[in-house]
Amino acid sequence: MRNRAAYSKLTIRDVAAEAGVSIATVSRVLNGRAPIAPETAAKVRAAVERLGFRANRTGRELRAGISRTVGVLVPSLDNPVFAESVTGIQEAARDAGWSVLIASSGYDVERENEAIGNLLSHRVGGLLLTVADADRSATLDTLDREQTPYVLLYNQPDRDDRATATIDNVAAGRDATRALIAAGHRRLAMVAGRFVASDRSKQRHRGFSEALAEARLEQVALIELDFDAVAAFDPMIRAVLTGPNRPTGLFCSTDLLALRIMALLREAHVAVPGEVGIVGFDGIAVGRLMAPSLATIVQPSREMGRRAFQHLLARLEGAAPEQILLPYEFRPGGSLGGTANAPQGE
Amino acid sequence: MRNRAAYSKLTIRDVAAEAGVSIATVSRVLNGRAPIAPETAAKVRAAVERLGFRANRTGRELRAGISRTVGVLVPSLDNPVFAESVTGIQEAARDAGWSVLIASSGYDVERENEAIGNLLSHRVGGLLLTVADADRSATLDTLDREQTPYVLLYNQPDRDDRATATIDNVAAGRDATRALIAAGHRRLAMVAGRFVASDRSKQRHRGFSEALAEARLEQVALIELDFDAVAAFDPMIRAVLTGPNRPTGLFCSTDLLALRIMALLREAHVAVPGEVGIVGFDGIAVGRLMAPSLATIVQPSREMGRRAFQHLLARLEGAAPEQILLPYEFRPGGSLGGTANAPQGE
DNA sequence: TTGTAGGCGTTATCAG
DNA sequence: CTGATAACGCCTACAA
């Protein structure tokens, strides 16, 4: 028996020597595929146990040409909505014996491309991505061309050849806005994450516009914000909210934005929901803990992560790209104000 | 020139053929180590560009025996404090050209061990971990024995041979409690994450106890909660908060717990800070957005992630394990109540 | 300065 | 049922 090497340095060769069999046999026992004599298997397993051996996935992957690792790209883990989807991905991946390689883009297209390239250099089995704009992305074009399997999360491209797990953002944006209108608000504005950084934001605004049109209302204002710097827009927001035709209802394209706006308004002594009603979007957990609680569209982020992963596995087996539309739900909350009868989500 | 294969299937052999050189030359150009004729390098680079080639890290890693991937284990990404540390890790990793493999334990020791084993099977270059109990962990013992480099985050073991990046949890717990006392609270209780699931929680409670002793006060109650199920403890908490000697000050071992307790109290019509003052721990971003804003100990989570990664790199170069103690800060907030003069963090 | 060849740890093929 | 062996993609002596 060789000297016991470090855990991370053991190879099946060590195990083979310890068990007195060939490396091929060790491999077979480890993978349980081929027919093996029970005693041989026992010997090998004992050796594995004794040595504390764990197969090197690198060798396995190189041999197989593909890995059971999924590459995940999110805009930012600091938005709980994305963190939650990653939790769902992790759950599904764990169930399937897969690992998760993660990267963040910071909502920046250049970093997005760079990060995807890095993930690909690991020869991951597939990708789960939330990108800035799923309809025009050079990197997604490349992935398509080279048939690298991926599934988008949150993104909801117009084209139907890209696999996604998402909700209907336009419909949800419409529902959120309808809730404001149903609550009695007539002068509505939207605070949105930059459209170039988030196609969802744009789609939610489309829903906002549709609901306004339905009710024959005009948009009072549209404030596009960077996702990271809200404070800088304080003056602009104050201006809008104290202007001549100031809105009484605000639709925010994400909950995080909504919470920041609410804090801003509090500082400015604008009462929520007294003077302004607010609806968010995402359904992050902390929204329910606020006072007033945040009315919002709840996305099933965790489930979205799980479903996206499962669809990725399906695609690896040759399934065609699907656009998985998950149900969302409007969650009423004190921030809405007015005398709302909350509409039900689809 | 061969048929253009899928991006992910290209090898340096393809590039070599395309450029009319040997694979060794391609490798050398890619790594920029050896002396190369400028024109040769140009040819190779052109071929790389033309083909859209990106080196397969699996092959590289197998050959090198080690990878530029860091394995990260957190209790849960759904607590923003951990998500934030991962953001810091990602930043530092990206700067260094490393990738991030991530797993969550759900605060469960068994899953913790399993996850670390999985990360190790990838032969990661090192590990960044937040474990349940850094002082007694069979897995950490194993890592030490086999000299697998790792750095702990948030964990603050008593022993000084384990590398960490953390804050002084006892001192911070003491400061948080002192703040409650300084605010005029005399009947103090603590709501803590289960000690078996979080050594930090235990240490923060030690700080709590020390501050009480200093002020010659008795602990009114200690409520240990599972990190995921707070609602279930509603009755217990209500009982404590309405008991004969009910506390007027509450120290919560995490911000997330504090926010949940605040919501619970709101439902129970117990005024915060009117009837109960609250201090949290972590400094998650949303705490500042609440009304009242959450008084808390702010940990430099992002920086902690960055520093932990950097120390891991240092350890890989042979540096001895360090216990990096980062500064924390007490952030006053409306939840504190009383007439506090907030103490400064160290 | 460049090419040839061996081997990293694993699995699959092919004999026995 | 088991063993020897040839790859997988890459890097690095060693040769030329």
TrEMBL record, chains A, B:
GO terms for molecular function: DNA-binding transcription factor activity; transcription cis-regulatory region binding. Pfam families: LacI, Peripla_BP_1. This is LacI family transcriptional regulator. Residues 9-44 form the HTH cro/C1-type domain. The keyword Transcription regulation applies. It comes from the Bacteria. InterPro entries: Cro/C1-type_HTH, HTH_LacI, Lambda_DNA-bd_dom_sf, Peripla_BP/Lac1_sug-bd_dom, Peripla_BP_I. PROSITE patterns: HTH_CROC1, HTH_LACI_1, HTH_LACI_2. SUPFAM superfamilies: lambda repressor-like DNA-binding domains, Periplasmic binding protein-like I. CDD domains: HTH_LacI. Residues 10-64 form the HTH lacI-type domain. Keywords: DNA-binding, Transcription, Transcription regulation. The keyword Transcription applies.
